[in-house]
Amino acid sequence: MISKRLEPFGTSIFSTMTRLAQEHGAINLAQGFPDFDGPREIFDFAREAMDQGYNQYARSMGLPELVESVARHFSRAYGMSFDPMREVCVTTGATEGLAASVLGLLNPGDEVLLMEPFYDSYPALAAMAGATVKSLVLESPDFALDLDRLQALVGPRTRLLILNNPHNPSGKVFSEEELQGIAKLCVAHDLLVLSDEVYEFLTYDGARHIPIASLPGMRERTLTVSSTGKTFSLTGWKIGWVVGPEELVAATQAAHQFLTFAVTTPFQAAMARAIEHFGQAFLGELRSDYLERRNFLVDMLREKGFGVSVPKGSYFVLADVRPLTEKPATEFAMDLIREKRVAALPVASFYLEGQKTEGERLLRFAFCKRMETLEAARERL
Ligand code: PMP
Ligand code: GLN
Fold first, then answer.
1. pLDDT digits (tens, 9 = 90+) for 29-41
2. pTM exceeds 0.90
3. Which atom of ligand 2 is the closest one to the Cα of 366?
4. How far is CA 110 from CA 65, 79, 153, 158, 344, in A?
5. What structural domains and CATH numbers belong to the chain?
6. Which of 15, 199, 227, 233 has most ligand 1 atoms within 8 Å of CB, for mutation?
7. In which region does residue 31 sit, left (phi positive, over 0), alpha (psi from -120 to 50) or beta (all else)?
8. Do residues 372 and 58 touch, judged by C-beta distance below 8 A?
9. 198 C-alpha vs ligand 1 centroid, how far in Å?
């Protein structure tokens, strides 16, 4: 009964791997969610909000307190100014922000540019909007951007480029030079950009996150999407947002009002306070905790014989299975779950059908887990 548009996408790999992990009693390093809670103060903020009557529908584009906090965050972190009431739309996680933006902006027959490997929702969203996908494979291990090849994909119907920076699953943080190249191309061809920056605070080894919207000519053509899920380790709260020029955010809002209308009110109120309350010291600690876990996971996977390159962003490590097996990574992932009771994510799901061989070399391991969890995974492997 599934529509023709959605049928090719089946069940998300995240649900599939988490179900298999549960069935086999495996440690779940497949799905990217922390196995620890975010700051307890934020729970109090939510309880207080409920006690204070933040319990009915919020303003559709977001609770005033939260859109103001988001605008202040952009100004503090990146020196960019946005009108909180017109240029911010609060969404049910980044997932809905991406969906509402794609559905609000695209017409059937428009083309969307993607880079593979991509977060799995992007091609499904393009399909829901009746758009077609053109995509550039970023090649492992360094996932460098070949601008000429990207440029060659642009045609008269190309309307939108979806960027993910820092990048899931590779952990790549795009360099300023790469971002400038993309920006020039988008300006030259009058493309819009939907920039998924959910890992904006998870960068390591001196890598600096630069929002593409901050580059010349880009503010007016970019929607930036982020989410508190990663920053506050509360992925289940699903508070995200889309920020951009009024005209583009109006397109996101046009879809958002009919997808969910508004996002849970007390959790928006709690996140507004969390953004103000947790500053540089908190983010510095988050980064250094994750750096320690990244290093542990990289060392562990190398010790076990995987081919590993060190990610500069996100909370994922890619591991090349070829030194260990001739099997495709998807099959090897099943062996790991069954025999070692450790779940990793087969990266083939982040590629289009014709490009899966590239992904069949790679498994993604998440390090957004307690050290005890990572240590237990090391024992089992
Ligand atoms: N984009 C990327 C690149 C992600 O990795 C994720 C989730 N891990 C999302 C979007 C979805 O974010 P949310 O949970 O806020 O919907
Ligand atoms: N974004 C998370 C990941 O990459 C999972 C999101 C989901 O389960 N849909 O693992």
1. 999 999 999 999 9
2. yes
3. 10
4. 36, 33, 13, 6, 35
5. 7-38+281-380 (3.90.1150.10), 40-277 (3.40.640.10)
6. 227
7. beta
8. no
9. 6
